[in-house]
Structure formats: structure tokens, C-alpha cells
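Anyone else keep sequences and C-alpha cells together like this?

Example one:
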Amino acid sequence: MKRSELPLNPDGSIYHLAMRPDQAAPCCLLVGDPQRVELARPFFSQILHEGQHREFRWITGLYRGHLISVIGTGIGPDNTEITLLELEALHNIDLSRGIPFPTRKKLYFLRIGTSGLLQSRTPVGTVVFTDWAIGIDPLPFFYENFMDEALSTAFQDYWASRKRAKLPWYGVHSGPTFKALAEKVSWEGHFVRGGTYSAPGFYGPQGRSLVGKVRHSDIPALMAGFSYQGQTIQNIEMEAAALLGLAKSLGHEAAALCLGIAQREEGAFGYTNGGPSLEELMKRLLHLGLEWLCRVK
């Protein structure tokens, strides 16, 4: 493999994450916001490695005796792709020679993030487990075995029945290991399961019209109206579909747990009902994510 295909830093760490193979755990909590890494730090009994490069920030340590990495990836499918491919390389490619190892290691990725809620009766502060996601970013054009054909076709047909514009929607499922954990979840508060719409932007692609004309400003309602195998789309965020598709393509497993901090139909933002703060709920969700990663093997 040419060095330009898999660039390394002078210290031998991988280019964007600035991690070395001995610093990367096979179970990873992907938290989006790099500052959220610090919220997870107190749960570890020991931090073995940590680093920061560009927008990426990470720690690797021991939680209840299990080696886990927590990585702040930044926003969007492009950063998600960089993170997963570099973690794949750290575990399954001999970086010094650029040659894949003969035996591949399976990896587990769990996204912990925030999102906007779509269903009218779901209150702010609800946690959403993504059983499946709908995306529209171009990653399926570049990776094989990325999307679920039945789910993709079902959503494309739904969209075509309501809009003239033909768009490259795709659908993908969470990993079965994480779905099994969601079946037995213990959570004090509102917890729902269903679909997630992963938008390729925060404003127009999520139906926010600030300046000028935005196409498909009704997209929150359109997404809320789609159902698949008895489940509706519960929330909007920006990374889950890319994460699930890339994990599927690479032979790994992934899922997403997102805290709902906005209610799109009601127009609410932030948690105002007198319960725990959003920061406290996020800490609890990070703790849950770490507990799940302890159980994946």
C-alpha cells in the first residue's frame, strides 16, 4: 500500500486521529462533541492513553476492567468516515508495511450524541435508540455492502409518493448485538426505539429556513410520517446512518443512542420540566454506553 493511501505522522500514529495501534481499543464510544470526552473521563478507573489532533479528541482506558476508547469525532459523515477507517487501519492493518493482517479483528462502535425529536408526544430529554437510520450522504457510492436494500427501497418509495425530486436516500440497520442490548435496557426516564434521519447539514437539510428559500422545509413532518416494520422515525441528527453503513461495510457493528434536546413539532429546545439537566442526562447516557460496551463480547 502506498504511503499516500495510509499516511502516518512522524511518530508513527495515524494521520487524523494521531493514535497508534497500541492506543486504540476494539470497543469505542463515539461522542461527536470533543468536549464530551471529558464527561466520560470520571467513569474510568484508569486512563492509559489520550490525545488530540485537529478536531479529534480521545482517551483510552479501563472501565470495569474493559479496555474502551472514547473519541470525539466532530460533526457529520465525513468525520465519521475518517474515524472508522482509521480505527479499522489501527486494528487490522500492519501500519509499518501497509499490509492487512491475515486475521481481522471485529470492532464495536456506539455513538452517544444529541438530536431533535420528531414525534409529537415525545418529550425533550428522551433517549432514542436507533434501530435503523435513513441517510442521504454520498458514502454508499464509495463503499460496497453499505446499505440495506429493503429499507432503502421502502423509504425511496415513500419519498417518491410525496415529492417529485428524486434523491439518493438509503437505509441501514444497527448491529444485532446492540439491538439485543436495547431489548433489555434499564433507563430511568423516557426511552424510545425506532428510526433516525441523519441529515447532511444542520439547517436546510433539517428543514430550518433562516435566510432565503429552503427546499423541503417540511422534511421533519415527512420523516415523522414514515414507518417501517412497525417503527417510526423518532429523531434527526447527522451521523448515525454513515456510522451504521460504514460499520456494516467493514464487517463491524455499530449503533446510536441520542439524547433528544429539541422537539421539532412543538418548537421546544432544552430541558425545562424541572428534571435533571441536559448535562446530567448526557453523563447518565455515557455511563449506559460504557456499560453496553462491556457486554458486547
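And example two:
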Amino acid sequence: MIPPFQREKRRKVRIVNNVEEYSLCRRGNSVSEFVKAARTSDLTDGGLKRVTVGGTGILLVQANGQYYATGLLCPHLEADLSEGTLSGTILTCPMHNSQFDLRDGRVVRWTNLEGTILAYAKKSRPPRPLKCYEVRVEGDTVLVAIPK
């Protein structure tokens, strides 16, 4: 069981284009450890790299000269996001074209479904943000903060 101070809580941020956006907030203080994930030379601008850090699947991205780390799997149907596409800081899932902003994990578009199918999809699997991890670059090393 996860202690209450480490649980993640969904908080509605706003509604855009009929999609409820959520952000993750932590209860209490959680301790993270920065772990080497890659070298800066492993990523090119616009590149997606699948890595495992501390036993966790992570997607590393370099976009517009910045480094980002997110969960490897889409929160919709767990597609591998390293096979997705990138436009600026917007990551598109390869399965149903869900889109997420790498800067904060917010949902830009939940799926490419329409009409009653979209309404059903939102009820059965409501929009959830992409999990984001803090990133540091020290020299030529990309470090990712993994909760202990």
C-alpha cells in the first residue's frame, strides 16, 4: 500500500476543446533521486529515446534544446510513446493520436475519436495527464529524478 503522503491526486485544471485537463500533484513531500538516464549526444533535437531508469520505463525527449522525461506508456491505452511523433513540445501517441504537452504532461487532445465513441471513451477511460519527471543536465549527462 502506498503511504498517503506519496499518493498522486488528480486535480482538474481547466476544460479546453471539451477535454478536461488534469495535472498531477503530490501529497506531502516525496524524495527523488537523480539517476543517469543518457548522454546528451544520445538525443538529437526532436528525438525520442526509450530508457529504463531505476527499473522504470522512461521516454527521454530533446525538444527545442530542452530535455524532458515522461512515462514511457500512454495513459490512455498504454501504447509505447517512443514510437509516437513530436511537434515542438507536443507528443502524439501512435495508437489513438492522444496528445500531451511535454512541459507539464497536460492533455492537449485525449484521442482522435469523435461523437458518441469519444463520449464513451472519456467515461470509460477519462483523460489523464502524462507523468513527467524532473530532468537535469550536468556536463554531457542527462539525469532524471526518480521517486524513491
